[in-house]
Every structure is written in structure tokens, then in C-alpha cells.
Amino acid sequence: MLADTDSNPKREALLTCLRPRFDAKDILSELSQLLPYETDAATAFRQRPLAAVFPQTTEQVQAAVKACHDLDIPFLARGSGTSLSGGSMPIPDGLMIILSKMDRLLELDLDNLRAVVQPGVINLNVSKAVAANGLYYSPDPSSQLICTIGGNIAFNSGGAHCLKLGMTSNHILGMKVVLPDGELITLGGKSLEAAGMDLCGLMVGSEGLLGIVTEATLRLLPTPQSVRTVLAAYSAVDHAGEAVAQVIGSGFLPVAIEIMDRLAIDAAEAAVHAGYPADAQALLIVELDGPQDEVLPQFESLLTLLNSTGAQSLKVPKSEEERAKIWKGRKAAFSAVGRLSPDYLVQDGVVPRSKLGLALREIGKLATKYQLRVANVFHAGDGNLHPLVLFDNRVAGELHRAEELAGEILRMCVDMGGSITGEHGVGVEKLAYMPYQFNEHDLGAMLAVYHAFDSKMLANRGKKLPMGSPEHQSGHVRSDQQHPLEKAGVIQRF
User: Fold this and answer.
1) Residue-number span of the structural domain to which 93 is assigned
2) Which of 46, 160, 240, 419 has the greatest CB tally within 10 Å of its CB?
């Protein structure tokens, strides 16, 4: 830990490079200034950066990155710090480049359905800016009120409506990127098709290892003519999971299918009073959108199908206000779970849709085994589970039990043919499980790409890719072991 008076030659050399390029107020180096930035939304871990800067231009980002490259100082970019995997947590003895002041919408090309934005633009603000023109930006993470476009690109964020409309990668056409040596390049453009390798696609989801995006060209969509939503209640969460497979198997392509279990329902009701059924053990939210002549007959068929899956009740909102209330409850679920438990871990595994019911039953068994509660909220349409493992860090051993339970869920997802992450990324939280999903050749190829972009491996060092720790290679971290990233000094416990 650094005190305000600590002398650090590397920090002083870095500050000497930064001061001519930044206003004094946009450079943080004192302990009291850095305290608010030592963790992100993965609050079980924290680390303090060497220093932090707030660039307002691409040139300032280049200057900061070039200084780090020349001095061999690791760095990372950060937006609102909403990463749930520790991906935007500081790097020890590293520079934090905070992009929140790069928040301008640079260009609106309404005729071609394009917007060019800086990385610090809040996700929801894009849709607000074009709503009067009958347009919107599709990716809608639950944190869209605060998360930034730059962070969405880094983690390939999805959201409730990604089933039909796709993830962030499907809506990013071009970008300007500062490479880890400070060079500026342009990838993609405004067209849906680009010549050469899809390096724009490679950058999306790279979690900041390949460079820092300073401008992004987004694809906008016309607001759908008709949107119909139904809230189906079930007596068991696995029944709701099995209903999802039937909906998709019957040929429907909803814009969204979401599931919440009883714990998540209780939390959301307490927080926003969404009007969810009091007797339901699970809720299924299904939404169709498109031309009215197409949506209305499909919606009637959908209601008939859901009724046949054993739904206890079906609620169709009568107004846009009622529909918004249903979604407000769903999007508030993560934060609302804090009403049920002082601490919780948010996981982000994926299983095939056909195995949703089985996966939910297995999660229930694991919760009983570890004597912990698990609230389930997830994007059911693409099998993206978001189990929230509830624990109390004040109780000795509960955090380790929660981590073990979360790890078993991730391994279960891989064993079922899925993935350890759908949209939250690997960050530091899932590093130990990368070798469980990928063999050494797969991981070697990923490291080779990282090294090709960043020969010094300074950009967001210690995130996403395991690099040699024996614990990383096992895919298992026992509760009586120190976390491998603690040993490496990358993270510290609260």
C-alpha cells in the first residue's frame, strides 16, 4: 500500500512524462485520490494503481500509453468500473487510464444508421440521443444506465435482447485503437463489410489486452413497429428452463427470453415493486418484436405454447408503462440481491438451451451441498446463466465456500458443452478455470495473439489469460489455498 508521502522512482518518472500532456486535475497520484479506484464491481478483490489519468483526447491516451511502454509500466483502460469479473480492477504498479471524460457523441449519420462515439459514452445515452429519430442502440446490459461503450467493447457485452439482435460485436462497425506501444490505428469503418482481416472483431471481447479504443462506430437500428411481452409464472425454476427449449424448438425467435427464480423475484419486488406474482417459484419473460402484422399472430401462438408448458399464469402488460415495470424488475435484479445478502458473487456461465433445466437442478444441488443460497437470473434464450451466490464475508470461510460453489458451476457449464463466460468476461475472477475449458495449445494461441499486439504484455496484464501459475493450469482452487492472483500480488482481499 502506498502512503501519500511514499517515494516511488517509477511513479515519479511516469508523472514526469504525463504532466506536460495533462492538466494537473486529470492526474491522480496520492493515496487519498486513488482509494475510490482500487476495485470495480467485483468487490471481493482490490488493488491500488501506481497512478491514474483522465484523458480527454486520443492524443492524450497515446501519450499515456507511450510513456508506459517506454518505462515498462503496465496499464489498463477503465470506464465506469462495472466489470463483474475484475477486468477493470487496477494492476499493481500500473497506470489506470480512466476514459470517463471521453464521453462525446462525435457524429450521427442517421441516413446510414450510424453513430460515432468516444469510449466513455454511457450505453443508454446512445439510444436517448437518437430516440426522437425512431432509432436505438441494441446491446442493453443490465448496467446500461452507467456502463460505457468502451467497456462494452472490451467484454463483448450482451443484455436481455441479445438473443435475436446479437452481442456488442454485432453492432460495432469500426474503431480507432491506441496500440500498446502508443501507435494509433483505424479498424473497420462505417460499412457492414470491410476488406482484410476482421481485426475489429478481434478487438471486441479482448478485455483491453490488445489496445485502447478511443472512438467507435456503432450500428443503429430502427425502433420496432410492435413489441409484445408476456410474463409467465412457473412452480419450479427448471420448468421455466424446459419451457425455453420448447419455445425455441417451436420455431419462435423472441428478441428476449429471461428467467428469474424465487430469490431474484423477492429481491426485485423489494427494490422496484415490479408487480411480479407472489406465488411463482420462477418467472419467464418472453418478448417478440417486429412488424405488427407479423408479431400479433406469432404472439397469440406463443401464449398458447406457454400455456401448454405448465405455466401457472400468463400476464400480458396492457401498456408501455406495465411492460417497462416488468423489465425494470429484471434489470434491477443484480443490485437488488444486495437486499437479501451482505455479499454475493455473480457468475456468468453458459450451457446449451436444451440443458437449462438440468443445469438449474444441478445448481440447486450445489447450493444444498455448500449450504449457501443461490439466486438465478439469466438470459435463458442463449443459455447464459447468471447465478448469484449469496454469502456473508463476516462469517469465517463463507467467501471461500462461495468461490468453490461458483467454480463448480463454471465446471458444470463446460462439462455440459458450454462456456465459463457469456458476457462478463474472464477478468481475474475466472483465470483459474481457463485451462478447464481450453487446452495448452488453445491458450498458447491466445497468448501468441496478445504478444503480437503487445510484445511487453503491459496492457491489462494479469487479466483474461493465465500465464504460467500452476494453480491456473489446474483449473481448481481449493478453499484452503491462497488465490494464485493473491500470491502474484495482482489482487488483495478485503
Assistant:
1) 9-98
2) 240
